[in-house]
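fyi for ur records
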Amino acid sequence: SMPITINTSVQNFDPSGTCNDAELRDSIAAYGTAAVAAMEKAFPGSEVDHNVIEGDVSRSIEISYDETQNHDDALFEAQRVIEAVYETGTFC
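which gave:
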């Protein structure tokens, strides 16, 4: 299986500052649940983790892969999946 890590920055999740700390934590948790479910659907059999980081994240997606898979294609698809989750979700 392919390990996938979704990294979410607490600092950058709500750039316009529309929610308080409790709402922010709840939104990040809801986003994580939705993002993991969407990723598992897009990449059946993958092991998906949601990693919440206080500061900036250098990569929003990390994929460990073997040589039989196209890493760039997988990364592009994974990025598309999490962007769709963020855009369609009701997060602050």
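The two ends are 33 Å apart (CA to CA). thats all i got for now
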